[in-house]
Design goal:
This protein is α/β, with parallel strands linked by helices. Helices cover 35% and strands 22% of the residues. It contains 15 helices and 17 strands. The strands form 3 sheets. Strands 10, 11, 12, 13, 14, 15, 16 and 17 form an 8-stranded mixed sheet that branches. A hairpin with a 5-residue loop joins strand 10 and strand 11. The radius of gyration is 21 Å and the shape is globular. GO terms for molecular function: ligase activity.
């Protein structure tokens, strides 16, 4: 691979999905090291990978069990430089809750718990953006902490339908289950909103829900920004991508499955200001949408983690693990260390090319996508030359073909609705 291995480095990654594989791949590309996946049921892309070891976590493990497994992993690698990564709100919050104990063994590229509580609460995030003059959607905040009281009623929502509704904090919403649960709700009329309040009350949701104006425009109006803020408070990594297509399955809505990397300097500056104003440290991922009515860049949220589709940064020439390891493992860079920016244009995609092109309605953008495919600048994070297991390759190929069925079921034609 042309880069010598950092023999002392051991990345340990909580979770077992595509995003976890992407983190492990970035570590392998940067340093030639294998990662340890800590998960109860990792995907075959990980369990059959040459660049991963798997440490099994009991199903539905609580904090104590998870801590015990992670301490066991640390004990089995004495004298090594361990870095703990995760790519889910629940895991980020877990790491923050136990940062003191975990920090005895691991470098932790996460913000502290107080910062996570502030920035992941979408209502608080909107207030931060308001102070900085960064646009966010018009929002009604619904506190459901007293929803068990039969007399509780939600506040009036004085926004025109259709509307978007979602939990203010992902970890609180992840803790409840109910039939028909969706990551994000698209609501056409008041009766659907009333039905949502009833479902949330019965499921025991007692946190905050948000009802927001719908920003028009299809998936291609979405932007993703990825950043790393080092231990001195400097944003030493930043990059962005134009979303082409998102997953539309109910529990996966809003997760990009295809993007083109592209610099957006004003969005980068806004993201840096948000991070600086909150005292943020570690990896962050922003969701932004361009309002086609006036060209405003509307910031939806910041995730206190690197993001499921983080590998687009590596493919674009800005491997996120490099500045993080330089900061937390090798020691902080000097004050004049350059900021790493994702400058190469590439197509990142988890879906078949023909399916993707079907959903890109803008002729100029479709031609741009087709040109990247023809020039060989189309990349899939799961397809890696270091992998040699044939069963793994077959599973990934079948998963890609299955995307036709998923989109036919949940998103049969492109529309101007994006979340």
């Amino acid at each position: 691979m042309g880069i010598p291995a950092m023999q002392s480095l051991v990345p340990v990654i909580l979770g077992g999905d595509i995003g976890v594989y992407a983190i492990g791949r970035s570590f392998h590309e940067a340093f030639g090291v294998r990662s340890v996946c800590v998960a109860s049921a990792p995907t075959e892309a990980i369990s059959r990978s040459r660049i991963f070891e798997v440490e099994h976590l009991p199903s539905r493990a609580g904090d104590a069990e998870t801590l015990a497994v992670l301490e066991g992993v640390a004990a089995s690698h004495p004298g090594r430089d361990l870095v703990l990564m995760a790519n889910h709100d629940v895991h980020s919050a877990f790491v923050a809750r136990h940062a003191q104990q975990l920090g005895e063994h691991y470098a932790l590229p996460f913000p502290d718990l107080a910062t996570i509580d502030r920035v992941t609460d979408k209502a608080h995030f909107a207030r931060v953006c308001g102070r900085l003059g960064v646009p966010t959607p018009r929002t009604v905040v619904v506190d459901m902490s007293e929803a068990e009281d039969p007399a509780w009623r939600p506040p009036e929502v004085d926004l025109p339908f259709p509307l978007v509704a979602k939990a203010a904090r992902g970890d609180a919403y992840d803790a409840v289950t109910f039939e028909g649960k969706r990551k994000i709700w698209f609501l056409e009329e008041p009766s659907e909103l009333e039905a949502l309040w009833g479902a949330l009350r019965r499921a025991g949701f007692r946190d905050t829900f948000l009802v927001q104006e719908l920003i028009p425009g299809d998936n291609t109006q979405m932007r993703s920004i990825t950043a790393y803020v080092d231990s001195r408070g400097r944003a030493t990594l930043i990059g962005s991508a134009r979303v082409l297509l998102e997953d539309h399955a109910p529990t996966m809505i809003g997760n990009p499955v295809a993007m083109i990397t592209e610099p957006f300097p004003q969005l980068w500056e806004d993201a840096r200001r948000i991070l600086a104003s909150t005292g943020y440290r570690g990896f962050a991922n922003f969701d932004v949408k361009i309002d086609p009515r006036d060209g405003r860049a509307v910031f939806f949220e910041v995730n206190p983690r690197i993001g499921r589709n983080n590998w687009y940064m590596t493919a674009a020439g800005a491997n996120p693990m490099t500045p993080m390891v330089a900061d937390l493992v090798e020691g902080p860079d000097g004050p004049d260390a350059p900021v790493r920016e994702a400058g190469e244009e590439i197509l990142y995609s988890l879906v078949p090319d023909r399916l993707l092109l079907r959903y890109v309605r803008d002729d100029a953008l479709r031609a741009r996508v087709a040109g990247l495919i023809r020039s060989g600048r189309r990349f899939d994070p799961l397809v890696y030359e270091a992998e040699t297991d044939r069963r793994r390759s077959t599973v990934i190929a079948l998963q890609k073909i299955n995307q036709y069925r998923k989109f036919r079921r949940y998103y049969p034609r492109a529309t101007d609705r994006s979340f």
